[in-house]
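Pipeline run #58 for the internal structure catalog. This entry was flagged by the ingest filter as a single-chain record with no existing model, so it goes straight to prediction. Upstream metadata was stripped on purpose; only the residue string is passed forward. Reviewer on rotation: M.T. Logging verbosity set to normal.
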Amino acid sequence: MSGPGLPTLDQLRVLLAVAETGSFSAAAKRLRRAQSVVSYTIANLEGQLGLALFVRGRRRPELTEAGRAVLADARRVTRLMDELRARAAGLTAGLEAEVALAVDVMFPTADLVAALEAFAAAFPTVALRLRVETLGAVVELVLGGVCGLGISSPMGVRADRLDSRLIRHIELIPVAAPGHPLAELPAPLPVASLHEHVQLVLSDRSALTDGQDFGVLSPRTWRLGDLGAKHALLRAGLGWGNMPAHMVCDDLAAGRLVRLRMATPQGRRLPLLLIHPAAAPPGPAARWLADRFTADAPPEPLDIAVTGDA
């Protein structure tokens, strides 16, 4: 005994039209077909599936239980086919199938989410591969061809291999928990007092900055590869360290962290660059995303000297 036949995409679209408009005549008007053609198409679909999809003999056709189940499948199938056609059209026009983006962990999460929401709306058929890394790891991913676009600090950026553009500065400030010994000392804090306490330092998981330290003032350090873990340990009072101001502003306002006032200036501005391989310019979707990130780029010239903190 043979099983149900295979419905055509056209039959599924007619089923959707009848269900959404509520009548065969309204569906015919939407599809610009004769009502008899719509009725014939539904009858053929029911015959192929061996199921009654509508209850006949009423003023308006009503879906049977089987009809409701088939309708849900029809919506899913037609949506997938529409996505396939849109993807094929985009690829024909030169649109990338995927954009791979690496972002420095210092970049504000809220701004990243807003940019990616806009990207998803503008390019629904383009897949996104996102990596969030620290320090030189973003540059390493872009130089290695793993990601075609990156947002990175200047550490390890090579002007001969990467095109770069300044998109913003991130303010880094020294903080500690209110119960930490440094928070209880009168300001300004002498550098010598920092040597007695553990500094929490964000470490580079790449090989680009091996043997280099940035903004490390204490000989006693805990090295962490995750900014969220550093944040949690700072709030727990297990050390002091520099953090992006946007990430700790709520903690400072609530008193969960305090800003340390140093005898020497410790507020730093970390430049973040948009980078891509010089030999591989971004495609249409990646270029759109790059333009989104650089829309508010300051006009100031960029000095590639490292000014950041680890």
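catalog note: The first strand starts at residue 54 and ends at 55.
catalog note: Residues 300-310 have pLDDT under 50 and may be disordered.
status: ready for reviewer M.T.
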